[in-house]
Amino acid sequence: MQEGIQCSCCESEQCLSVIRGIHSDDSVEKTFLGNGRNGDKHTCICPIETLVWTNDYTLVQRARCNIDCHCLSMCHCLSMLSCSKQCSYPSIFIYGHRATGKSHVIHTLLKELELPYATVSCVECVSVGLLFEQVLLSLFGSDSASLLSRNPSLSDFVRVYKQLCVQASAKQTRYIVLDRAELLRDMEANLLPAFLRLQELVEDNVTVILLSEIVWDKFRPNTGCFEPLLLHFPDYSKGELQQILSEDSHPSYSPELYSAFINILLGVFYSVCRDLRELSLRLSMLKFQPLFSLPSVKESDTHKLWRNIEPHLKKAMQTVYLREVSSVQWEQQLKMEEKEAGAVRGLSAHAHVELPYYSKFLLIAAYLASYNPARTDKRFFLKHHGKIKKTNFLKKHEKTSNHLLGPKPFPLDRLLAIFYSVVDSRVAPTASVFCQISSLVTLQLLNQVGHDDQLDAPKYKCAVSLDFILAISRTVSFDMVKYLYDFL
Amino acid sequence: MSKRKVKETHMPVGECISQVQMILRERFCHQRLPEKPVGMESQHKHLLELLRRTAVHGESNSVLIVGPRGSGKTMLLNCVLRELLEVKDVNKNVLPVHLNGLLQTDDRIALKEITRQLNLENVVGDKVFGSFAENLAFLLEALKKGDRSSSRPVLFILDEFDLFAHHKNQTLLYNLLDVSQSAQAPVAVIGLTCRLDVLELLEKRVKSRFSHRQIHLLSSLSFIQYLDNVRSQLSLPQDFPDTKFYDEWNDSIKTLCEDQLVVDVLQSHYNSSKDFRSLHLLLMLALSRVSASKPAIKPTDLLEASRVCMVDSKANILHGLSILELCLIIAMKHLNDIYEGEPFNFQMVHNEFKKFLQRKSHSIHNFDKPVVIKAFEHLQQLELIKSMDSSTAKIQKEYQLMKLLLDHSQIMEALQKYPQCPTDVKQWAMSAFG
């Protein structure tokens, strides 16, 4: 018997199980047996490679090229999929992080093995009718969707499906792949349980494959449902990420230089983000001439390369990673930087909007009103506040620090009182001052709390961060920290 | 017939395995009904008797089959129907109508479906009816055959019965049960549901028309019976063409079920759930490892399948997080420990993280606040943390109160398995406070 034959990619014998699962073609088995008995002509039997024996060489090569680093999960998937006459489990749920290749592997497998399937991304389906239409279109051809009425319910879909099944009976298992399946939970409540048991409802050999980022425990409806087969797609390790990212190297650089560069990049970004999509985005932005064509650096001088690149990467983390700057802007800014010695700044650094003088003070007053408790106003803002008992100002427990809890609402009167004491000149309470408060609300620097109808005593909350307000107070030479209760 | 004359067919191993896979997959994917359901003899008899009275004697009945998910309600019903329809005159007369609570979400849709299944669409045509009851009465009247005075018995099978109880006024249920109580036509209403408290959902007038007959499928298999069931599920049927292979396979299954490792695995499964469905899931996973080179199920296959079934999915997700996100989770865990599960916001978590960076960390870089916010939002997208209130009051996102949806032990276990976890992070996680 065929003992001891191992797959070189995933080194497990279970790969062999998939041969029978996929092709019940006798030619596979006979050739396989023949070679084994003649004494180990081949040592590697990866499930895809064995399909070579069925004359589908092109099929194999394409599948092999398209799937990387996923042999084990692919083996599991393959063993679940069935060959023509066999049944397959009614529903399969595949979960894993973003960009771990779930959709890619499933689609490649289904396409290359030429199984009938329909794939729908639930993001596109704003209504269930779109979902049903797409499924019927892919499985039964273009006239089938016309059988559905305008606003089809699930009952209509099942009825039409049964009708079409009778006309085109299934010789093979049909597959319906639902991508981003977590959005199914927010659609009609009966949709998810019905899809899980679709095989039973339509009495046809169909399997529903759900792909999602979120674990199955969050999907289960209240009264339970048909439990699908759960498969996990593991995330890439650092080595695998390096291998994948090094694959499309720029032709003008040598592969070693490129992989050294990828190594450096991963070193900076790996502890923050492991999403392949994000990393390749960063990569595509940083692949440009100026980094590499520095005259003083030779290709083999990786240390100098690292010193040159490192500040750029750090800046990239602040701006490009946060998507505040697009790739085009990044390149332009870097080109500009060669001429001037300016720093690359993201949006948040440009965020101090130019406000009029009194608006700045109004904002400062609002911040003080939000983050200082009302009882401490006397101490900060009155010239002669009398004796204040020391007990009030014992160091508070950290938990109640207002900067951790968030801004508190304050009435308009309090804001104005603080404003008048903070502004050094005499200000008359004219309409222009009140107008500025409303514009601050429109700019979303202040939030209005409570109902719009309360005209006599509106309440507000300050919605800016500490860094922002410190930057503003610096522009008007106001020492903010002295007035904050939390920094006493 | 002498045994010597029986021709023994031998097929190549591959062909045998393919046949085995086909037969067993049909069993596990519920596409073929078993010969007779296991452990449900009394319920089977009861239901059969009830339906026979409707089909043959024209007596109206209503019954509810109640049992948890996967306990075999649909299987029981289908077995009974199969047995019932074997009788010739029953087969000719009885009209089964299958309704499902998931599909027929409205009484109007349900009525259309009933019309369609009774093949009375032409008869109804474009008639407009005043009420549901009129429509139903018309349908049942139309079933009366020309020469016979009595009408054909109809079996209404309502799957997910509890969902029908959520329709407006429960008109469908009321009318069906009303027909089953009055002498209009022989009708049997069979409801299948997983809720034990389904009768509480019914309105008073509906409940009074129901016969209160319930068949409970609370599986009462002992562990020995469970093991026997496993053996019979995995064994091949008598009519398998290759007898030598059939013997080999059944023997291997017998030894498999006596293996201690397998018994332990099945015991742990039995302790968590006794129903057939989870058993079939486990056996399906074990079956997928059978191939021409390995034409038998080994104990390690079952062990591996059990491991796949019982894995903690959140731990798998935690495995793929970046270091920054993991640190945030550990900070949240500490906040939960200190403040005993009170909700927190991003500022508190960031504060905790900064304390760790200042005092104890050597390897983690001091990231900017926006980068940390992005990591926090990623955790929110993965639904590992959830915001407490969905109120419309405008709260800045750093101050929104959140809750961590992970357990202390889950986090600690995930940390052990995390690849290349820096030691200072691990030590921080294991320290008691801060």
Automatic annotation (TrEMBL), chain A:
Record domain Orc1-like AAA ATPase: where: 86-209
One annotated GO biological process: DNA replication initiation
Entry keyword set: ATP-binding, DNA replication, Nucleotide-binding, Nucleus
SUPFAM superfamilies, per database record: P-loop containing nucleoside triphosphate hydrolases
Boundaries of every Origin recognition complex subunit 5 C-terminal domain copy: 355-484
GO cellular component, one term: nuclear origin of replication recognition complex
Stored InterPro entries: AAA_16 (IPR041664), ORC5 (IPR020796), ORC5_C (IPR047088), P-loop_NTPase (IPR027417)
A GO molecular-function annotation: ATP binding
A Pfam family hit: ORC5_C
PANTHER family: ORIGIN RECOGNITION COMPLEX SUBUNIT 5 (PTHR12705)
Subunit structure: Component of ORC, a complex composed of at least 6 subunits: ORC1, ORC2, ORC3, ORC4, ORC5 and ORC6. ORC is regulated in a cell-cycle dependent manner. It is sequentially assembled at the exit from anaphase of mitosis and disassembled as cells enter S phase.
Family to which this protein belongs: Belongs to the ORC5 family.
Name of protein: Origin recognition complex subunit 5
Automatic annotation (TrEMBL), chain B:
GO terms for biological process, alphabetical: DNA replication initiation
Main location: nucleus
Entry's family note: Belongs to the ORC4 family.
Annotated ranges, domain AAA+ ATPase: 59-220
Gene Ontology MF annotations: ATP binding; DNA replication origin binding
Protein's recorded name: Origin recognition complex subunit 4
PANTHER family registered for this protein in UniProt: ORIGIN RECOGNITION COMPLEX SUBUNIT 4 (PTHR12087)
Cellular localization per UniProt: Nucleus
Keywords, comma-separated and alphabetical: ATP-binding, DNA replication, DNA-binding, Nucleotide-binding, Nucleus
Subunit (UniProt): Component of ORC, a complex composed of at least 6 subunits: ORC1, ORC2, ORC3, ORC4, ORC5 and ORC6. ORC is regulated in a cell-cycle dependent manner. It is sequentially assembled at the exit from anaphase of mitosis and disassembled as cells enter S phase. Interacts with DBF4. Interacts with POLQ.
Organism phylogeny: Eukaryota, Metazoa, Chordata, Craniata, Vertebrata
Biological function: Component of the origin recognition complex (ORC) that binds origins of replication.
Superkingdom of the source species: Eukaryota
GO cellular component, one term: nuclear origin of replication recognition complex
